[in-house]
Design goal:
24% helix, 33% strand, 7-stranded mixed beta sheet, binds S-adenosylmethionine
């Protein structure tokens, strides 16, 4: 958890006010269709790596039996409250081994936190080890180098007794390395009426499309890029849909 953003540690309980489950309905439906259309046979057991607060899972669980892995115990706790019927496992997506296979492995925006090619290799190897022959793996990074642009976003929600708003600024201090920064400022309204702020730096990886394809293939998958367009959230402009040869 060294270097992990505060959002996934001491601020994790605020996650549902930063990113609400209902904002994920449209994209979760796209991921569901891609998984079902691509898998060879029935897709029932799905492993999500970096499942965070479980927002995608809150939609996908109606269609799949989900096992949710995240390295943050605090985020797993948030997800358990939203998705008590799902299995939750604490683990690092680069190295976790559950000693069983799934019909599909899904990695959403959490893969943005892989800052080196070795990190990505670790995730693809984990996905391959947990994917049955003929099964599918879907990787949905926020950006590839070819689609990356400096961006500013804002949002947040009111809860029953407290509220959060945020400003998110994604930028690239050094175009010659494989990382970008996502700086978030949060404004918290506490139940007692007090207001405070936090600055939180997220270090994310940025890799060319060809690197994604090469590393996923090196793990043993067959892979193709798939376009993904969502108005609601500025993530997932492109996904990588992989199959483990049967
Ligand atoms: C943006 S949140 C994911 C939100 C998720 N897509 C959802 O639907 O709620 C990113 C998550 O990635 C997790 N994460 C980052 N690096 C990880 C790693 N190496 N292994 C497992 N989880 C990781 C963080 O703990 C955090 O919960």
């Amino acid at each position: 958890m060294e270097g992990s953003p505060k959002l996934y540690r001491e601020l994790a309980a605020w996650w549902p006010l930063l990113s609400a489950p209902e904002d994920y309905a449209e994209e979760a439906e796209d991921y569901r269709k891609l998984i079902l259309e691509t898998s060879d046979g029935e897709a029932r057991d799905v492993l999500e790596l970096g499942s965070g607060g479980g927002n995608n899972a809150s939609h996908l669980k109606a269609h799949f039996r989900l096992t949710l892995v995240d390295r943050s115990p605090q985020m797993l706790e948030v997800s358990r409250r939203l998705n008590p019927e799902c299995e939750h496992v604490e683990g690092d997506m680069r190295s976790v081994r559950l000693a069983r296979t799934f019909d599909a492995v899904f990695v959403h925006d959490a893969i943005a936190y892989m800052a080196t090619e070795d990190d990505l290799r670790g995730v693809f190897s984990t996905a391959f080890e947990h994917c049955r022959a003929g099964g599918v793996a879907l990787f949905v990074p926020d950006h590839v180098t070819e689609t990356f642009e400096t961006a500013v976003d804002h949002g947040g929600h009111d809860g029953p007794d407290r509220a959060l708003r945020y400003l998110e600024w994604t930028w690239d201090p050094d175009p010659n390395d494989s990382t970008v920064r996502m700086d978030l400022t949060y404004v918290f309204h506490e139940p007692d009426g007090s207001v405070h702020t936090e600055l939180d730096e997220h270090l994310c990886g940025l890799f060319p499309r060809a690197t994604w394809l090469r590393l996923i293939e090196e793990a043993g998958f067959e892979v193709r890029p798939v376009p993904l367009v969502h108005d609601e959230r500025p993530v997932g402009s492109e996904g990588f849909l992989a199959t483990r040869p049967g």
